[in-house]
């Protein structure tokens, strides 16, 4: 990903559909003692943090304030993505792929998930760059503020700590035959606990519930400001390409693919967004596909962007404008938590000049916009 000049266009209500196919062999790494009710895939709801369906929804936040916040979130994520990609270019990446993305208050979409049996319903932020599922657990030594209920493994019949011999624990410290994880983030916040296996339950699109077993991080200690602007979130639903992500653990059940359809966040009649796994992923009629490119640390989603078109006309940007470089920078990265599109300066300038010429030829006059709404 290349930074700086950015087309600060945050889409007004519209539908967008993104399908991600992972062209790698995935191994089913779900704890054998846990069963699944899933047969051919499943669907769960995605909730935008500013949607009326969000548990932290506030009717007093204006449209402009939402845009400003989304741009701030995107800026912070891009800054950290760039620095992490430079580091990834020099490393092969760990087995776990537990590489922090940014302050996790910076997420945009969340999912309602039931953890354990009987299930404790919590909200996890969706993160396409994270390769770990984790949630705050009770009791905790240091906790971040979270609206109840807080998941307590002592009250679950299906909770099982992972033994140190588990593949996910190969590079993690082992204490009392339980493997421990520690995540430290760019803003010096942290979370830590033990790796375990548990049953995850989701409400399906047909009104039923579906469950699947997966390994996750049960956090017993975290920075109090982990999610400073919301008390509704308990952790992260990582769907990155690493082996410990939720998607990878689904293995053949997900068939290495997921898709999501994002609906307008300001229209009550628009319904909710959906995240689909496996056979439940929708095929777009007459749609086209492009392969995902493997990242250095095997946790990011890249595509080979060659050029940009405006009004159906290609800009003919110099070859290599969006090429990935040996140091890990460059390329075109897809990220679930970034709402704005960021372009390298040469591409940004070409897009702006072409858009200016398009509207000038139709007798439109440019007006001065705010810093967040410029293009």
TrEMBL record:
Q: Which GO terms describe its biological process?
A: proteolysis
**Which positions fall inside the Peptidase A1 domain?**
109-375
Name the Gene Ontology molecular function terms of this record: aspartic-type endopeptidase activity
GO CC, alphabetical: extracellular region
Keyword annotations: Aspartyl protease, Glycoprotein, Hydrolase, Protease
Q: Which domain of life is it from?
A: Eukaryota
**Similarity-based family:** Belongs to the peptidase A1 family.
Name of this chain's protein = Peptidase A1 domain-containing protein
Q: What organism is recorded for this protein?
A: Ananas comosus var. bracteatus
Ranked from the top, the taxonomy reads: Eukaryota, Viridiplantae, Streptophyta, Embryophyta, Tracheophyta
């Amino acid at each position: 990903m290349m930074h700086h000049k950015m087309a600060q266009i945050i889409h007004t209500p519209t539908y967008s559909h993104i399908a991600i196919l992972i062209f790698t062999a995935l191994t089913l790494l779900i704890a054998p003692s846990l069963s699944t009710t899933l047969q051919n895939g499943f669907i769960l709801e995605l909730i935008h943090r500013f949607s009326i369906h969000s548990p932290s929804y506030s009717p007093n936040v204006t449209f402009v304030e939402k845009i400003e916040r989304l741009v701030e979130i995107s800026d912070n994520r891009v800054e950290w993505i760039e620095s992490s990609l430079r580091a990834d270019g020099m490393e092969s990446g760990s087995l776990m792929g537990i590489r922090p993305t940014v302050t996790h208050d910076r997420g945009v979409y969340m999912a309602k998930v039931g953890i354990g049996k009987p299930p404790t319903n919590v909200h996890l932020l969706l993160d396409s760059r994270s390769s770990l599922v984790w949630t705050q657990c009770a009791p905790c030594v240091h906790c971040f503020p979270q609206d109840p209920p807080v998941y307590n493994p002592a009250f679950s019949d299906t909770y099982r700590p992972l033994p140190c011999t588990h593949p996910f624990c190969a590079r993690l410290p082992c204490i009392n035959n339980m493997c421990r994880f520690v995540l430290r983030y760019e803003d010096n916040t942290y979370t830590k606990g033990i790796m375990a296996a548990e049953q995850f339950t989701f409400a399906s699109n047909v009104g039923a519930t579906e469950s699947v077993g997966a390994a996750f991080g049960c956090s017993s200690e975290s920075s109090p400001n982990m999610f400073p602007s919301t008390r509704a979130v308990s952790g992260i639903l990582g769907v990155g390409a690493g082996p410990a992500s939720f998607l990878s653990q689904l293995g053949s059940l997900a068939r290495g693919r997921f898709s999501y359809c994002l609906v307008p966040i300001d229209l009550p009649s628009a319904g909710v967004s959906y995240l689909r796994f496996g056979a439940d992923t929708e095929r777009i009629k007459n749609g086209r596909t492009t392969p995902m490119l493997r990242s250095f640390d095997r946790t990011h989603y890249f595509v080979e962007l060659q050029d940009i078109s405006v009004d159906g006309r290609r800009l003919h940007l110099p070859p290599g404008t969006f090429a990935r470089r040996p140091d890990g920078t460059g390329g075109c990265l897809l990220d679930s938590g970034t709402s704005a599109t960021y372009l390298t300066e040469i591409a940004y300038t070409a897009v702006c000049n072409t858009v200016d010429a398009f509207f000038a030829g139709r007798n439109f006059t440019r007006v001065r916009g705010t810093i967040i709404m410029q293009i």
